[in-house]
Amino acid sequence: MLRALAVDDERPSLEELLYLLNADPRIGTAEGAGDATEALRRINRALESGPGGPEAIDVVFLDIHMPGLDGLDLARLLTGFADPPLVVFVTAHEDFAVQAFDLKAVDYVLKPVRKERLAEAVRRAAELRDTAAPRIPVSEPDPDHISVELGGVTRFVSVDDITHVEAQGDYARLHTDRGSHLIRIPLSTLEERWRSRGFVRIHRRHLVALRHVGELRLDAGTVSVMVGSEELQVSRRHTRELRDLLMRRP
Predict the structure, then answer these.
(1) Which of 61, 74, 84, 133 has the most neighbouring CB atoms within 10 Å?
(2) Cα–Cα nearest to 206, from 224, 183, 184
(3) Distance CA 104, CA 242 (A)
(4) What are the C-alpha distances in Å from 60 to residues 18, 51, 57, 74?
C-alpha cells in the first residue's frame, strides 16, 4: 500500500485531498503538509529512515502555487535525490502541465478534484512504485562545476557563470545570466566552498561573485551592489570587508 504526503497551503483543499486519499484502498497512510518547506523536512526524514522506515513516503500529491518554495521548485529538488518519492501535481492551473511532465510527474490532476480522477492518479503511482528501479546519484564532476536538475536532466553549471547566490532556508538559488537553479545546499556551505573563488557574503541572504559586481552604491547610509541588472543590499557588518575586497580586485 502507498504511503502518501499531500501538500497544499489552502487548508480546505488539503483536508479534501486527504479525505479522498484515505478513502482509496491502495493508500495505506496519507498525511498533510501546509507548504513545500514542511514537505521537504518530512521527505528528508523519510529518506533518512530508509525505504521501510516508519516515516517513508512513496508519493507526494503536490499543489503548485504556494508561498515561498512552490510545487515546481520542490519537484525539481526531488529529482536530485537518490531515491525520491513519486510526484502527482494537484492544481487549479492548467498552464504548468508541460513543466510538470518534464519533471517526470506521474500525473497532473486539476482542481476541483474528482474522486475518479484522483483514483486514476493513485493507480498510476502504485504501478510505478512496484516497478521503479532505484536512481543512481550523480557526483560532482569537478570543483569548477556544480550539478543542477532541470526538467529531470542533470546539468553542470560553471561556477564562473554564477553571479550571486540567494539563501532559501536550507537551500540556495544559484543565479546566472541565463536563469537560476535551486539546489539542496545551504548558503553557508557554498560560502566556505567558494571563498577561494572570489565569492563573498554581503548579507545573511546573499553571496556574490566579486568578478560580477559592477557597482558599489551608497544612498542615505544604505550600501548596495549592482550584480548584472540586480541591485542587492549589503548589510553593515559586511560593508567594510566588501569595500576592501573590491579595492584589491584586479
Answers:
(1) 61
(2) 224
(3) 42
(4) 12, 15, 7, 10
The per-residue pLDDT for range 232-244, each reduced to its tens digit, is 999 999 999 999 9
| Contact (CB, 8 A) for 173 and 202 | no
Contact 100, 75 (CB under 8 A): yes
Q: How far is it, in rounded angstroms, from Cα 40 to Cα 84?
A: 11
Task: Supply 96's cell numbers.
Answer: 504548468
Return the closest-CA partner of residue 178 out of 210, 155, 203, 194: 155
Q: Can you tell me whether residue 3 is helix, strand or coil?
A: strand
Between CA 194 and CA 197 the distance in angstroms is: 5
DSSP 66: -
> The whole model's pTM is what?
0.56
Q: Which three cell numbers stand for residue 142?
A: 569537478
d(CA 211, CA 200): 11
The answer to whether 56 and 4 have CB atoms below 8 angstroms apart is: no
What are the distances in angstroms from CA 149 to CA 72, 140, 158, 183, 184?
12, 12, 14, 8, 10
Q: How far apart are CA 147 and CA 142, in angstroms?
A: 10
Give the other-Cβ count within 10 Å of 19's Cβ. 11
CA distance 218 to 212: 18
Cis peptide before 112 (omega within 30 of 0): yes
Segment 36-54, tens digit of pLDDT: 999 999 998 887 766 666 6
